[in-house]
Amino acid sequence: MGCNMSLKIHFLHSHLEFYPENLGSVSDEHGEQFHQAISNMGARSQGKWNPKMLADYFWTFKMDIPQAKQSRYAKCFCIVKNGSKILSTAPTEGQIDCFQGLRFLSNAWVIAIHIGLIGLGVLRHVEEVKPLLDSRVSQLGLNGVFAVDIFFVISGFLNAKAFFHKYSKCNGKISWFHFYMKRFVRLTPVYMIVLGFNTTLFAYTGTGMLWPTYVTNPVCQKDWWWHLLYINNFEESTQECLGWCWSLAADMQFYIISPLFMVPLIRWPRLGYALILACIFGSCIASFLLTYQYNLIDGFSRMEFHLHDYQTFMN
């Protein structure tokens, strides 16, 4: 016990001598008191050692170490702290209030269409819902696929706003590695947790007559890396693991190519506007050609004309 205690005291002394910045904003008086406390503890260790002694000294002097240096990474997983931030309705600096309403309405729109589509998928006689599909309320719900476009617009706006501010602050010296890695790290960990849960445990979370239709998709175990690389939106609809994650892949791809438009807008405005207009017209022309070539004119709003081949229409 005495040998271990001597090693602990030696470590504390050396840590304070070679890394004084770890004391943060501790006053000189408290610093001297702390060093004296360590010395006294060494003297007392020759007798009977109390394992709570070190903790008592820390709390006695109430050292004012900066919060950022106190278990900074451990606090990232604090349920209380993170929960209070998530549930907080207090406005933040630079917040665009109207976006909160747009997010809520878009989320409600997306949820509504998915509820309707999931319900239609388990009906034996789909033709019975045709009168319902003729109503204007149903048309509003069936066209909820366009709500995802709102998220793309919000994401692009915020990305451009942050990029222009950063570009101006750094005088154009942007760390592209940090630019892309920040986005990847922000999305990927939680994304992979959801993918892993869906691939391994989801099949065991429910029961019922219809539950076997929701068993784990074998595609997830085979092509999970498509999601990791954010290219899963290029898979066939029948071969997708998490079909509803196509928007994450599309959003990441928009983010990757965004500097090709934002940098010219700053340095060569005319070229930047020309690129944007060219892409808008090019997108419209490509959509027209693809729609004409593959007969894609029918959308969810015309589902009533495809009740006889519902599954084929959905795929």
Automatic annotation (TrEMBL):
The chain crosses the membrane at residues 104-123, 143-164, 184-204, 271-292. Residues 99-300 form the Acyltransferase domain. It holds the Pfam family Acyl_transf_3. One of its GO terms (molecular function) is acyltransferase activity, transferring groups other than amino-acyl groups. Keywords: Membrane, Transmembrane, Transmembrane helix. The keyword Transmembrane helix applies. This is Nose resistant to fluoxetine protein 6. The gene is nrf-6_17.
